[in-house]
Every structure is written in C-alpha cells, then in structure tokens.
Design a protein that fits this description.
Layout lengths: L1 H5 L6 H56 L14 E3 L5 E9 L4 E3 L8 E9 L13 E11 L10 E3 L3 E4 L3 E3 L8 E3 L4 E4 L4 E3 L2 E3 L3 E3 L4 E2 L3 E8 L4 E2 L3 E7 L11 E3 L28 E4 L7 E2 L2 E3 L8 E4 L8 E2 L2 E6 L3 E4 L3 E3 L4 E6 L5 E6 L21 E3 L2 E4 L3 E7 L3 E3 L3 E9 L3 E3 L4 E4 L7 E2 L4 E2 L7 E11 L3
Parallel strand pairs: 6-9, 6-33, 7-10, 7-34, 8-11, 8-35, 9-12, 10-13, 11-14, 12-15, 13-15, 14-16, 15-17, 17-18, 19-22, 20-23, 21-24, 22-25, 24-27, 25-28, 26-29, 27-30, 28-31, 29-32, 30-33, 31-33, 32-34, 33-35
Antiparallel strand pairs: 1-2, 2-3, 2-4, 4-5, 5-38, 36-37
C-alpha cells in the first residue's frame, strides 16, 4: 500500500504547477512593491534635499540683488539690466522691479521709486530623481522700501495737538491727504461762522462743534461728541454721540456711534540737527547763522543759498524774540529754505509774501524746535524763550512755493492767509477770517511724521525696511 502511494496520481500535476506559479507571482508582486517603495522613497528624499537647495539659492538671489542696490549704478550694470544672475553655485536669477507710484514696472529704481520688489528663482544643485521635480526650483519674492537722500514727504495736511478753531469763510483743501487730512490729536475742533469748507476727511480725538454753515466734504471720525448745528458732513460720521440724533440729512453717509479711539500718529520731536538736512545727492544744506537785530530781520528781496538753487538753513535760534519783519515784506526764494527760530511772531506786519524768484518750485520750512524729553510723544513749548507762529495780517505763500510749519507751540493765523503745504502745531491753534489752505506733501529731515519716529540719515539711494517676503509659485 505504501509503494502504491509513492506513484503520482493522475490529475495532481496541474495543481502543483499552479501552486508554484502562484507563489512566484506573489513574490514578484512583493518585489515590485518593495522596489516601487524604495524608488518612491528615494524620490521624496531627494525632493526634500532639492527643495532646501533651491530655496537657499533663491534666498541668495534676494541677498545679492538687495546688496547690489546699495551701490550706485550696480543694478543697471548687470549683463541684463535689473537681473542678478549667478554664474555658479548657488544658481539663481533675481529680477528687480520698481514702484514709482503707478504700479510695478520691471527695471532698476529711479529718483521717483518708493518701493522695490525682488523676485528670485533658485535652482537646486542636485535635482530630485524618480520623476519628482517640484522642488528643483523655488521662487522667493521680497518687497522693500526704497529710500532717497534728502527730505521725504510724511505727515497729515494739518496736525494740531490741542484745540483747533477755524471760522469766517475758511477753506481747507486736504482731499489728497487721506483719512487723517486734518488731525486734531488731543483737543476739540470748532468750525464756526460763515460757510467754512473742509474739502477732505478729518479725525478729531475730542469733540466736534459746528457753528454757522461748516461743511466737511469727506468723512469724520470723532471720539467725543459731534454737535452739527447747521453744519454738514457729506461722507460717513463716526462719533461717541451726535446732536441732533439722528443726524438725518446733515450726514450724507452712515452715522456710527462709537467712542473707540482709532490709530493716529503721535507727536514726534523735531530738533535742530543741520546735519540731517541733505540734498537728493546726499550733500549737506548750506548753513547761515544770524544773531544780531539787523540780520534777524527779514527784508524784501531774493533769499536762498549762496550758490544759486542750493538749499539754505537759516539758523535764527540766537535771535532774541525770534525773526522780525518790515511792515510789508515780499521775499522771493532762489532755493529751498529752512528757517529755525524760537518764535515767528509778526503782530504788526501788514503783509508777508513768499514767492519764487523764477518758475522753479521751492520748499520752505518754518521750524521751532521741540527740545522736550526724547520720545515723550507730546509737544513741549517753553514760553520762557519760545513762542507761537502768529501772523495778524495777510500771509501769502504762492505756488510754486510750498511751506511746512512745525512748532511745539501754537499756530495763530488771522485776517487771511494763503498757504500751500503742511501745518504741524503743538498748542491750541486758530485759522480765522478767510484763510485758504491747500495740502502739499513736504515732510522734514530726520523724522517720519506718519510713524512718529526719528529716521536714519542716508547719503545715497538704497533699500529700506523689508515690507513683505513670501514664497511664490513659479510664473
């Protein structure tokens, strides 16, 4: 019987073969899966390596382009102007774009450029394998401020750190200055008498009082109460309270009740630092110092730097009682002019006019320094030797002259003035009897009025602070 079982039985041959083939197929499948996993793992591990390398290369392109922008002419001197491309490892190509106020344009910065954008494509030194190529290149984009030597515009059209009253046919055109065109930082705003118009928007960190027919053509944000009387706000009104309530047709937009204090620039101290005042070429302004009664009086005629067109700082801080004037004074500017004085008080002057000696535009600064504690965020006017900017009769600043007033004391403009520029005053201020004001951005050297910060002085065009930085898809 045992011998009989050793002899193969007909029909078992195919079953054995099938089993062998099945085992072989399973082994082949497992081998394929294992090999696929190995290849896939290799692909993803090399992808990680390639991603790191390509991103590092893209970062290197950002650094190379930014460094090049510190050197005059370096951007345009590249083999392809405005493109920084490496010739070895790490491999990158960084493109420079500029914003001159009308959007992004490919190319190197100009005298009008306010921002630069660098887009850098980096390539991995060792690309990934197994068909995984997504990390072989990386794109990084960085946007920087672009700074120029000289005085850069900043600040509200009118900034009063205290009460502010305008009346009697006052006209303020601040429409180009944005939501903080007229900023009353720590006081009340009174717009009274006879058809005054604020063409733009206002921010009052205090109360708003309209009397007569006062009209704000933009919006108004008031942290305290808003008493409209016969006045009107064409845009939206946000206030702690309003009278009448509801305001009805006296608010053209939407009235929102809120006492939340919106963000606004703090006061920043501006002191006498002549070295901060540079031309757009990075050269210092000329400085002339006057102290005697004769030289402390401004007379009619041309006024400016010794060299025609070269800007002048007139240091009148040693003039006891500040700058004085003749009865009728007509000054023609031959250059930009900065006047530092402890007060500008012209109580008996019949008229004061500033114009250009030619068709060229010039800037004019009236500055009373704030010598208070550094960083105190509040004006300090020491009336023992300082005083207000006060003009009792006609003051005219004619285009193409634009003027900025900075004083930690008050601004008191009566009986008509015509002003193009900016007014920044630290005390309770007045604009009465037919004043006309038009916003022109000017700023001052060494400070940023928008950020309320002291700014570094630069002697050549260069990139400034980083605004944004992000990874970007290629394309």
């Amino acid at each position: 019987m045992f011998l009989k079982r050793l002899v193969p039985v007909r029909g078992e041959d195919g079953a054995a073969l099938a089993a062998v083939l099945g085992a072989f197929a399973i082994g082949l499948l497992l081998t394929t899966l294992i090999m696929s996993s190995v290849v896939q793992g290799l692909g993803w591990s090399t992808f990680s390596r390639a991603s790191i390398q390509s991103h590092a290369a893209a970062d290197a392109g950002i650094v190379a382009a930014r460094t090049g922008l510190y050197s005059a002419g370096n951007c345009n001197s590249q083999p392809t102007a405005g493109v920084y491309a490496s010739t070895g490892s790490p491999a990158y190509s960084a493109k420079v774009e500029r914003n001159d106020g009308a959007g992004w344009v490919v190319g190197c910065p100009t005298v009008k450029t306010s921002q630069v954008r660098i887009t850098s494509i980096g390539t991995a030194e060792a690309p990934a394998v197994a068909g995984v190529s997504a990390g072989d290149t990386s794109t990084v984009e960085a946007v920087y401020q672009y700074l120029h030597p000289g005085v850069n515009p900043s600040g509200s059209a009118v900034y009063i750190h205290g009460d502010f009253q305008v009346d009697a046919n006052s006209t303020f055109d601040i429409s180009e200055a944005g939501s903080n065109g007229l900023l009353v930082k720590d006081g009340n705003f009174t717009c009274d008498k006879n058809n005054s118009v604020i063409n733009g928007s206002i921010l009052v960190l205090g109360d708003l009082v309209f009397g007569g027919k006062c009209n704000v053509t933009g919006s108004a944000v008031v942290t305290g109460s808003a008493k409209l009387n016969t006045g009107r706000i064409d845009g939206d009104l946000t206030a702690g309270s309003v009278d009448p309530n509801p305001p009805g047709t006296q608010v053209g937009g939407t009235y929102t009740q809120s006492s939340v204090v919106p963000p606004s620039p703090d006061w920043v101290n501006l002191t006498y630092k002549p070295g901060d005042w540079l031309t757009s070429d990075g050269l210092p302004f000329e400085v002339q110092t006057v102290t005697s009664p004769g030289t402390c009086k401004l007379s009619s005629g041309n006024m400016g730097g010794t060299s025609p067109g070269y800007p002048l700082i007139l240091n009148a801080l040693g003039c006891v009682g500040g700058i004085s004037l003749n009865q009728n004074t007509n000054i023609k500017l031959t250059s930009d002019l900065v006047i530092f004085a402890n007060k500008f008080d012209f109580p008996s002057t019949n008229s004061l006019a500033f114009s250009s000696s030619s068709s060229a535009g010039h800037r004019l600064w009236f500055i009373t320094p704030d010598n208070g504690p550094v960083g105190d965020k509040a004006p300090t006017c020491d009336y023992s030797y300082q005083g207000d900017f006060s003009i009792k009769n006609t003051l005219t600043i004619s285009p193409p002259i634009a003027a900025l007033l900075y004083t930690p004391c008050a601004f008191d403009g009566k009986n008509g003035f015509t002003w193009q520029g900016q007014i920044i005053a630290g005390g309770d201020s007045y604009a009465e009897n037919n004043p006309s004001f038009t916003y022109v951005p000017i700023g001052a050297a060494g400070v940023d009025f928008n950020e309320a910060t002291v700014t570094p002085i630069i002697t050549k065009p260069q990139p400034g602070a980083l605004i944004t930085m992000r990874d970007r898809s290629v394309g």
